[in-house]
Specification:
Length: 140
């Protein structure tokens, strides 16, 4: 019924993506449950759009701040003065939020080589310890 009344450009009623992204959906909860324990392995900077998105007949937030940028230990967060569709479309290098985003990317990019090198060392040491343990078990 909705398909017949609402133009497809305003609202896509096909597909399971919209349902999966609904607040409180089982799919979204499963993704969160899987990702949460892995977060400590990453440097995370949460961004959200501070303006409501225009859907033609209504304006609303696609992702609310508390969902897009939860307050968690060892993470960074910032709002960008755009709607969801335009939050990564900067008109110029002086556009609001551009320097913030570039600074975050530069920081993570500059820190990545040493972080990755240390993780390779740790992974190699863990693998070596595992092999020593396995060899000791075989010798018993």
């Amino acid at each position: 019924m909705v398909d017949a009344l609402v133009p497809s450009k305003l609202f896509d009623t096909d597909g399971q993506l919209l349902e999966a992204l609904e607040e409180g959906s089982e799919t979204l909860q499963n993704v969160t449950d899987i990702f949460a324990p892995l977060m400590k392995n990453f440097h995370i900077y949460f961004f959200w759009g501070q303006e409501k998105t225009d859907f033609g007949t209504t304006r609303k937030y696609v992702v609310k701040e508390h969902s897009a940028a939860p307050i968690l230990d060892d993470t960074e967060r910032a709002g960008l003065p755009y709607d969801h569709c335009n939050m990564c479309s900067f008109e110029s290098r002086t556009a609001p939020g551009y320097r913030l985003l570039v600074a975050a990317l530069m920081t993570y990019t500059l820190n990545a080589p040493s972080t990755i090198a240390q993780r390779w060392i740790s992974a190699t040491e863990m693998l070596k310890a595992k092999r020593v343990t396995e060899a000791a078990e075989l010798m018993q």
